[in-house]
Amino acid sequence: MGVTLKSTNDLCKMLSPEMLLSWTMWVKLLSEKLKPVFSMLNESKGVLRSRVSSKKGGDAEKSREKRDKVLDELNALGKKLDAEEAEVKISKLILENQKTLYPTWTLERIEKESLDDPNLYWLEPTTSFNINNDVEC
Fold first, then answer.
1. Coiled coil: which residue ranges (predicted)?
2. Contact 42/48 with Cβ under 8 angstroms?
């Protein structure tokens, strides 16, 4: 009866916990015994035990630096836009306050106010010629 295993998970499902424990211990024991053989083979062929490509590490670091630089630029741009937006809000608020303090003058408004309160736009001093101005009150 032949069983084909597609992955180590299939093997783990088939074995009982006791068998699995003994199997993992057997694998560890075998790997410990074969370690010197593998190290001798690596030394004889000139192959390093663990290979890490400096290019990959350098590329990852360069890409990280590039990503960090872009992120810093975006953060600076965001702060700049937030500051400009706050400045625009403040200027709009100041303009609205000035409009309420000093309303815009139009010809119609001046005519209406001059009819409602004529003393407001009276440019000559109000002096009555019927009263004797020589006498102080």
1. 60-87
2. yes
